[in-house]
Amino acid sequence: MEEAARARGAAREAIGDITPAHLRDHIDGLLKSSTVVPGVLTVLSAQAVESGASATEVETRAAGVQLIYEGLGLTRTLSRDEPWNGDPPHTESNVAILAADVMVSRGFSLLARTEAADTAVRTVKSFGRDQTERRTDNALETDVFELAIVAGTTATGSDVPTGIRRYAERLAVTVADRDSTEMLFDEAVDMLTKLSGRQPNWGDETPSSATDP
């Protein structure tokens, strides 16, 4: 899928100047093998509102969202697996911890001057609370998908669609319950088009969609 290639490529390019090389290679390996749904959702959100945003701007935002998700997701994994409790030395575990911090920081820097900056801050704060409470649901995915929609739809100043939090919650469950997200993208385009204002707001109604669990 073109959107997946664009989002993944933008994220990998965004970390191209990170040093030392071992850290950069570690992050690049993560980005090559990880799910790219957050980045793709950013691209699809921009397309859904027909914003006319430049490809470069949209891909930069997609990279920012993807890197924040990768960093927080890695932190979540490390907090559960606690690799530092194993036998020393812990070189790779230390690299992973640093990689998580670097990805979140770089993602922030890419979104810092966009309309999604405040949402990015809320995403990280929410993640901190969730980890403190040891929540194991799809809270991170919900927050990141909401961030992706905000980042994409506002790429050229369009208003943030209403109802996106509810959609992000449903989408997080869908992604978690599927072995493959290939069909997700067509569904996302349809739902994001509705959210952009071409269909009634679903604040008081439940949308029918194949994204239903």
Observed structural traits:
213 residues; Farnesyl Diphosphate Synthase; 9 helices; 69% helix; 0% strand; disordered C terminus
Strand fraction equals under 5%
What integer is the average pLDDT?
83
Question: Got a strand count?
Answer: 0
Radius of gyration (CA) equals 17 Å
CATH architecture name: Orthogonal Bundle
Instruction: Using the coordinates shown, work out and report the CATH topology.
Output: Farnesyl Diphosphate Synthase
**The named CATH superfamily:** Farnesyl Diphosphate Synthase
Helix fraction bin: 55-70%
Distance between the termini: 24 Å
The level-1 CATH class: Mainly Alpha
Report what the structure shows.
- The chain is globular and about 50 Å long.
- Helices cover 69% and strands 0% of the residues.
- The protein starts with a helix and ends in a 15-residue tail after the last helix.
- It has a single domain, classed as Orthogonal Bundle (Farnesyl Diphosphate Synthase).
- Residues 199-213 have low confidence and may be disordered.
- With 213 residues, the chain is mainly α.
- The chain has helices spanning 2-14, 21-33, 37-48, 55-81, 91-111, 117-132, 139-153, 164-177, 184-198.
Describe, in short, the structure shown:
By secondary structure, the chain is an all-alpha fold. It contains 9 helices and no strands. Helix 2 crosses helix 5.
Secondary-structure map with pairings?
Elements: H1 2-14, H2 21-33, H3 37-48, H4 55-81, H5 91-111, H6 117-132, H7 139-153, H8 164-177, H9 184-198
Helix pairs in contact: 1-3, 1-4, 2-5, 3-4, 3-7, 3-9, 4-5, 4-6, 4-7, 6-7, 7-8
